[in-house]
Design a protein that fits this description.
The chain has about 350 residues and is α+β, with helices and mostly antiparallel strands. The chain contains 9 helices and 18 strands. Helix 2 runs antiparallel to helix 3. Bound molecules: adenosine-5'-triphosphate and magnesium ion (MG) (2 copies).
Length: about 350
């Protein structure tokens, strides 16, 4: 790409570190400003692959090189309250919500929203961690016994959605925007299990609506790079669930759809190179492998690819994924179903 990069990445067993030009630099408080920039090999661009990074450090680095996406955008996405306020201020709907920081404010929020609700910690959560669904007052009492609710939490009205879907959007440093089609997603216990794209939608206008929402968000944020948006699909409306300022698990199918993948398009965005094709030439999908060793027996068909993250299996930990593609959507849906049976043996 004719440019030098550093990725702020997760490495090995989840140690927070910076991967720079082939070296792994562990983050310590002593490494800041110029010293950090030098330790990284004086890159022209720094980018991230996860949102839980130190924003002050990114702002420090921004004095020496381009930091994309910009630290302000990442800061919004680090906190569910800031994120939902930002999205609503654009006139884009979400689930109804209240921000709370005590047992009393939780009770008042439930009074206002009505049960059921989902309570989520505002920061650090992923894969459904730090979340409680409350259906009745007994469950509320049980939560309050184990948690004083001090700190930032969001209470969301429970949305009876028809489907879940997500869009991977991108904006280049030259201002060019592009979007992959919506993927439809299946979650179990708050964790993504599989995605299929393009999504089958209850109303044909939702696809354009998703792009419009994504465009308004990336433009308002002055965003450069790939940004992903999770939606709840209602009959003729999309509600934003959350944003991820990075490539997304539900976009891994782009590696197998005969187009430019989300990973390549992230790099093209931040390098200001014309964005690659985002309209798939085929239907494609992805199945996550959680908490178990990868098995080559899953590769029974020639249109299945296995991606290995080289991680030690732990319960519910994402250790890899399978990509599948087919010009026949029903065949793809069946294959994804069979793979889930083979992996989880529960369908
Ligand atoms: P991720 O791994 O995608 O970052 P997360 O831990 O940030 O997940 P959310 O995306 O907020 O969690 O929620 C996980 C899942 O829980 C959603 O995909 C959805 O299935 C369900 N969920 C979350 N909020 C609501 C809601 N308000 N109403 C109904 N279901 C919800
Ligand atoms: Mg999340
Ligand atoms: Mg989510």
């Amino acid at each position: 790409l004719g440019m030098t990069f550093s990725f702020l990445a997760e490495s090995g067993e989840n140690r927070s570190c910076v991967e720079g030009l082939g070296d792994i630099v562990e983050l310590t408080p002593a490494l800041s400003g110029r010293k950090l920039f030098e330790a990284l090999g004086e890159p022209e661009v720094v980018t991230v692959e996860r949102e839980h990074v130190d924003v002050a450090m990114l702002r420090d680095l921004a004095s020496f090189c381009q930091v994309t996406p910009n630290p302000d955008a990442i800061e919004i996405c680090q906190h569910r309250g800031r994120e939902k306020n930002f999205v609503n201020a654009l006139g884009v709907p979400t689930a109804p919500y209240r921000l709370i920081n005590s047992a009393e404010s939780l009770k008042a929020a439930i009074e206002a929203l009505g049960l059921p609700v989902i309570v989520k910690s505002c920061e650090e959560g992923y894969d459904g961690r730090g979340q409680w669904k409350i259906d009745n007052t007994q469950e509320l009492d049980a939560l309050l016994l184990e948690n004083t609710m001090e700190g930032d939490f969001i209470v969301e009205g429970f949305v009876a959605f028809e489907k879940e879907a997500s869009i991977v959007a991108m904006r280049s440093s030259k201002g060019e925007c592009a979007f992959y089609p919506l993927a439809e997603n299946e979650h179990r216990n708050g964790i993504l299990i599989s995605s299929i794209a393009p999504a089958e939608l209850p109303s044909p206008s939702l696809s354009a609506e998703a792009r419009k929402i994504a465009q308004s968000i990336i433009e308002k944020m002055d965003y450069v790079g790939v940004l992903s948006i999770e939606f709840f699909v209602m009959h003729d409306q999309l509600l934003v669930n959350e944003l991820a300022p990075r490539v997304h698990n539900s976009g891994h199918w782009t590696q197998a759809a005969g187009i430019c993948s989300q990973f390549e398009n992230h790099l093209r965005s931040i390098a200001g190179i014309t964005l690659g094709a985002t309209e798939p030439t085929t239907h494609a999908g992805m199945v996550n492998v959680l908490g178990q060793k990868l098995n080559t027996n899953w590769l029974v068909d020639s249109n299945v690819q296995l991606h290995d993250y080289n991680k030690t299996p732990r319960p519910n930990r994402k250790v890899g994924h399978l990509n599948v593609w087919s010009s026949d959507r029903q065949k793809l849906v069946n294959q994804i179903h069979e793979l889930k049976c083979a992996i989880y043996g529960d369908e």
